[in-house]
Amino acid sequence: MTAFDVAAYVSSEFAEHAAVQRATPDVVSADLLRLVELCAASIEAGGKILFFGNGGSAGDAQHLATELAVRYQRDRAPIAAIALTTDSSALTAIGNDMGFDQLFARQVQAIGRPGDVAIGITTSGRSANVANGLIAARECGLRAAAFSGGSGGALPGLADPLILVPSTTTARIQEMHITIGQILCGALERRLGLV
């Protein structure tokens, strides 16, 4: 059995991360600027931001909704944001009664309002429940946006803006998603004049 070279693995992971980090700003900045403006317009009109995703992306949804509703860097007025991944009763009822693919669509239909912004997060773009959440958002008059990676899977045409990290490696995409999301939070609170 060949010994695993831990040092080489660690070095290659950092190198891949750095390469994706260098490439990401040029690819996503225009869409990120548009997303900041969409979110700001929604909040200024009394709307809210809905985040959703599965697994690590569910964690990102909760993280970003919390940064907005509580604070990002300094105390300020709250920004209306919620993660659709936190209500265990709703999640289990929808999954059991309607199917896991309706997990986010049903919640968007229940609490989304025209002018709100729905942000789906999926590294592959192939999560049916995220795609269905975005479809429901569009049907209900919300702006549907998403964070994904690679080609975006099923999301082109469903999400606009669609922020695509230039990678197909799940870990690298997730690393950029939380960076992009935190930039969104910081830019939004400044754009709204809250800090």
Can you walk through the features of this model?
It is a single chain. By secondary structure, the protein is an alpha/beta fold. It contains 6 helices and 5 strands. The chain has helices spanning about 5-45, 55-70, 90-95, 105-110, 130-140, 170-190; strands at about 50-55, 80-85, 115-120, 145-150, 160-165. A 5-stranded parallel β-sheet has the order 2-1-3-4-5. The longest helix has about 40 residues, at about 5-45. It is globular, with a radius of gyration of 17 Å. The chain starts with 5 loop residues before the first helix and ends with a helix. The model has no long low-confidence stretch (mean pLDDT about 95).
Number of β-strand runs: 5
| Strand order in the largest sheet | 2-1-3-4-5
Give the overall shape: globular
Based on secondary structure, the structural category is: alpha/beta
Indicate the percent of residues in helices.
40-55%
Low-pLDDT runs: none
Strand content: 5-15%
Main sheet makeup:
5 strands, parallel
Tell me, rounded to a whole number, the average pLDDT.
97
How much is the radius of gyration in Å? Answer: 17 Å
Count up the helices.
6
Q: Determine the N-to-C terminus distance.
A: 57 Å
Order of helices and strands: HEHEHHEHEEH
